[in-house]
Amino acid sequence: MKNKVGIGYDIHRLVEGEELYLGGVKIPFPKGLLGHSDGDCLIHAIVDSVLGAAGKGDIGTIFPDTDPEYKNISSRKILEDVMEMMKTQGWKIVNIDSIIIAEAPRMRPFIPEMKKILCPVLELSEEGLGIKAKTNEGIGELGRGNAIAAWAAAFLKKP
Fold first, then answer.
1. Which residue of 50, 69, 116, 117 sits 20 to 30 Å from the alpha carbon of 108, by its own alpha carbon?
2. Tens digit of each residue's pLDDT (9 = 90 or more) over 9-61
């Protein structure tokens, strides 16, 4: 059996006029994440962690932001495509742990819904997907509420 670990990170600026999507959940908030896709930095970090563990680079390698085909694409669709690639190559996710860093809005109320959306796509039980929420304690762009970031670590196996 082959076991591999990957990490992922993503950050997007919060701007008015965009909807806020995190973990596939549309979160009511006056600002949203600016991105070529829907800007869902949690899913992007998860995708990067899975691709990294499989030695496949990062999200921009497979879904370049220079390709108009991916403009406004749902990050959930990106995750579904990456999971199909992992299955084709024989990889199975054992678990993923992640952190969302945002001053506002508070994420904790949305985490159960994020898990309900993401776990079936990742083929994980809810215990197999960790999602934590932290603030940046007022420090930097994240702390001033100008951006939201996410980190993820994925553990994959290939029987």
1. 50
2. 999 999 999 999 999 999 999 999 999 889 999 999 999 999 999 999 899 99
